[in-house]
Amino acid sequence: MRQIFLFCCLMALCWPGSAFGQDASVAAAAPSPASQPNPGATASKTEAEQLDIYCLRLAYPAITGMECLPDGSQQLVFSSGIRVAYRHAPTAADKPQDADVRTCMTELYPLEPARPETGTAGQIRSQALLEALYGKGSANVARQVQTAFVQGMPVRLSRPAALAVQKADAYLVMAVRKEPQLYYWLRPDHSFERRMRPNEPVDPHCYGIALDCASDMAPYREDSQPASHPLRREYPSVIVTHMEGQGFIWGGKWAEYAFAHFEYRPELIYKATILRAVEQLTDWRY
Q: Strands 188-190 and 248-250: what pairing?
């Protein structure tokens, strides 16, 4: 069964019909076969934890492994020596700005064409992980932010997100040629935000991993608005598909919807892609 699991992990990233297969540059950025992380390397981890660490290492090569500590906590180990809590000790209580990585990855992100009305996948973020990946404090984050272009319009994003959105844009340019009305949904109006707010939920814009497009057409849910909104069904699927294909999740799949919002969370896309492939293989067998 373990061999089937590993086979599905690899096939999910390379098969033409997968979320990453259609935009192959994300899969190509994964480690080479010789350096592929082995989800079964540590017997003390559960299968869910093994899958998480596999996806995290594919998404962020600076993560080299995970340590299990005597108090029951687990830490992601970076090549720089930084440790980030994958799982807090059982007695520890997560604060909104101090969620562990395991909590952030618990809810499965629904890939296109799924568009639930009750989802929250991706709304919980680990500030410690974001600081390890992109820098601690606005000045440090800003040093690695660079300019990318969406439909010829500039956006400021952290380097990995900038590279990913540039690749997605190459596909979106072709989509706009076929359907010119898509252009109006792709006007970026908010990306990197330098101002960090202490003791508030983590804002992905402050780490340069989020951009908003066409906010005048794609609203955020406010307290007075109903959970159901026609854009949850009608927002152009081709945009969401190509953005997911480069590692971005879409805020239109949250109960507290944010239709303009795209956020670079490749570990969530990897995990969803692999589990979809496993499910399809199971359906095929039976």
A: unpaired
